[in-house]
């Protein structure tokens, strides 16, 4: 009887732990090409000192796995896109993470951004210039 109770408690703890983790923006996310809909990359969003950062773990497009950020400026110019930090220091504001920039390695441009967890496995990522009305939105899916 005690063995079954211990297994039940462990199982419940695992379910609660996985469920609470999936309700955050943190983790690995798959991105998609806006034009083709094809899988583009895997981005890890992680927390450091109370802020959220994102880096590209893997490029999924065939033949582009080792691309460099040729259009980037500054220290990122010519650097490998794989491993590159593309989101730099989002701050939590209720259900939204904002007040940071996101880099588009394809164009080398940086945009203001905010991120909202729309569903447990769906992340809304909005990059914009000036006002959030002028920009574009991507939806990433949890890995």
From TrEMBL:
InterPro entries to which the protein is assigned, alphabetical: DUF2147 (IPR019223)
Gene3D superfamilies membership: 2.40.128.520
Chain segments annotated as coiled-coil in the UniProt record: none
Domain DUF2147: 27-142
PANTHER family associated with the record: BLL5882 PROTEIN, BLR1215 PROTEIN
Protein name: DUF2147 domain-containing protein
Annotated source species: Lutibacter agarilyticus
């Amino acid at each position: 009887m005690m063995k079954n109770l211990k297994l039940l408690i462990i199982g419940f703890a695992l379910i609660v732990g996985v469920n609470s983790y999936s309700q955050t923006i943190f983790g690995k996310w798959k991105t998609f090409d806006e034009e083709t809909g094809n899988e583009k990359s895997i981005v890890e969003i992680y927390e450091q000192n109370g802020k959220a950062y994102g880096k590209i773990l893997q490029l999924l497009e065939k033949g582009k796995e080792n691309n460099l950020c040729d259009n980037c400026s500054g220290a990122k110019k010519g650097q490998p896109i794989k491993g590159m930090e593309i989101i730099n220091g989002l701050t939590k504001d209720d259900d939204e993470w904002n007040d940071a920039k996101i880099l588009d390695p394809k164009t080398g441009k940086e945009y203001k951004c905010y991120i909202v967890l729309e569903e447990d496995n769906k992340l809304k990522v909005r990059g914009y210039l000036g006002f959030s009305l002028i920009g574009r939105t991507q939806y990433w899916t949890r890995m």
